[in-house]
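Bug #2210: token dump truncated for MerR HTH family regulatory protein?
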Amino acid sequence: MNEDGTQEAGYGIGAVARRLGVPAATLRTWNLRYGIGPSRRSPGGHRRYGTADLRRLETMSRLVREGMPPAEAARKALRLPGGPPAAPDGVPSAPALVEAALALDSRAVADGLAAALAGHGATWTWQRLVRPVFAAIVDRQAETGGCVDVEHLFSERLLAALLPLGEPPGSPAGRLRPVLLACAEDEQHSLPVHVLAAVLAGEHGVGVRVLGARTPYSALAASMSALDPAVVFVWAQRSVTGDPAPLAALPGPPERIVVGGPGWTAAPPAGIAQVTSLDEAVSRVLAAFR
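Reproduced locally. Full output below:
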């Protein structure tokens, strides 16, 4: 807001990049990862940087040039007068949620995630809030060698917030064949499976069954025979769990099987689809019901 009470027009990302000498791609990364980005919108709906945003970016850019790690530089920049831009509907910014997690403030983390899921849904929360928070925590781990407790607390609160969304009231699970979601055998990283379940059930009304972490392939095969699911999604985070060979022995047509995650060590058997993003996984599942 200008001194005369009018709304400032703001700056586009190209103008800011030229002013700071920072590539536009870097500015987008700083926005996604650290929450330092445009807080205004033009009348046409385009995001614009205001003067407070520029001050924060100038500070961050200077600190990074001086050798400070980007995550620490972002925290210092966000403490400038004006702070991070306020989020709508009581939803915290990613930097605010990072600070709550670093303080091991379980209640603040839980409340922030609940507000985001209620106000924006699982897709927005995962892409715009959770992924930047995890990225910031990973950066802090690389800097300090610690913060495993922070990662675990945030993951546990996120899982607790996602679980109720897996079977929303009015889900057509009884009328349509469900989607079966599981982790590969011995794969313990199950959060992406629960995110996908929350998106499918909460945002698209698809009935889901989540088998979760470390699902033996024999148990997955038994569930497939019992439920006759429309789609089977299998997640592998780590390469030690990502051998695709056992997928060939699963019952039914391979076309109903979809795999995701960075752990798969080779292309899946013929007929099995592999996806690389949440949006792609959702699209692939929904296509089975058309």
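Output looks complete on our side. Strands lie at 40-41, 47-48, 179-183, 208-212, 231-235, 257-260, 273-275. Marking as cannot-reproduce; reopen if the truncation happens again.
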